[in-house]
Design a protein that fits this description.
The chain is an alpha+beta fold. It has a single domain, classed as 2-Layer Sandwich (Ribosomal protein S3 C-terminal domain), CATH 3.30.1140. It contains 2 helices and 3 strands. A 3-stranded antiparallel beta sheet has the order 1-3-2, with helices on one face. It is globular, with a radius of gyration of 14 Å. The two termini are about 20 Å apart.
Length: about 110
């Protein structure tokens, strides 16, 4: 796999990893308040593990939110002050019939 040296390539790579991790952890399960802590911890740990295994020169930050589909709104935002040529971030939204999952990954280049 090629080295990622710009924000767009970082974003594409981390989005792919994030979606796979969500699918592997949550899969086809229905929302359960009792499982949310397990799911969010599993998703962020799996994402970090998969990203680190790639051996890229980045430090990663991963966040995850799981929300039951009830018709309520969820708004998120983030802002970063960094080198846009080297660092990158992405946020993916996954959903099934009972819940939403939002994962953000920030990749900060190690000099």
């Amino acid at each position: 796999m090629e080295d990622f040296h710009n924000g767009n390539e970082v974003s594409h790579n981390t989005a792919s990893v994030s979606m796979k991790c969500i699918e592997n952890v949550v899969g086809g399960d229905d929302y359960s308040a009792n499982l949310v802590n397990k799911w969010t911890a599993g998703i962020v740990e799996r994402c970090l593990t998969q990203l680190v295994k790639q051996g890229k020169p980045y430090k990663y930050i991963v966040t995850c939110a799981v929300m039951q589909k009830t018709g309520a709104g969820l708004h998120t935002a983030n802002s970063c002050y960094w080198d846009t040529a080297m660092d990158g971030s992405t946020t993916v939204r996954w959903e099934n019939r009972t819940m939403y999952c939002v994962v953000s990954v920030f990749a900060v280049a190690v000099a």
